[in-house]
Amino acid sequence: MKTAMFGGSFNPPHLGHLKLVEKVVNDLSLDRVIIMPTYSTPLKDNSEFADAELRLEMCRLNFENTEKAEVSDLEIKREGKSFTYLTLNSLKESYPDDELFLIVGADMYMTLQNWKNPDEIFKLAKIIVVPRNGGDYDLISQKKLLSERGCVSYLLDKPVYDISSTEIRNKLRSGDEVGSLIAPKVLEFIKNECLYGI
Hints:
The protein is α/β, with parallel strands linked by helices. It is built from 9 helices and 6 strands, in the order βαβαβααβααβαβαα.
């Protein structure tokens, strides 16, 4: 079995996340993608985070009809900072015979060697890298650099989406239309919970 972890703040989750899961499942013949919302993120400003349980529920709504996607509350239950090597170790315990993958954006990939215990991450999982539009990232050089440390990387051929959760939050605050960017049930949930200043 091939199991990928797709972690992030999902603040909020959006249709781009759905497209990405569908693409990696198709391109790499994955058996499941575990959606892993973080409790807090070590390398990000967490001041604009919606409550962890609310982001978890938005993920469930966002991915409820996505084949092979499973939403996990592992990092939220653990609380504290979400270190990827700890989560991968937990997944390895749960799925000892599976081949593990980790999905990261190009920006995160360029800093992977600075994460907590990166060599342990490289031993546990192969990395699926999602290019970003407009980013000045030398992914080929980074792949070579990380391969010297035992990291196996798969670079997707092109960006999957050009949407960010930050952009969606800004549009929501401004009263701009986001119906083409976010699932109807997620948008309804945001409005009902009065999230992101609306």
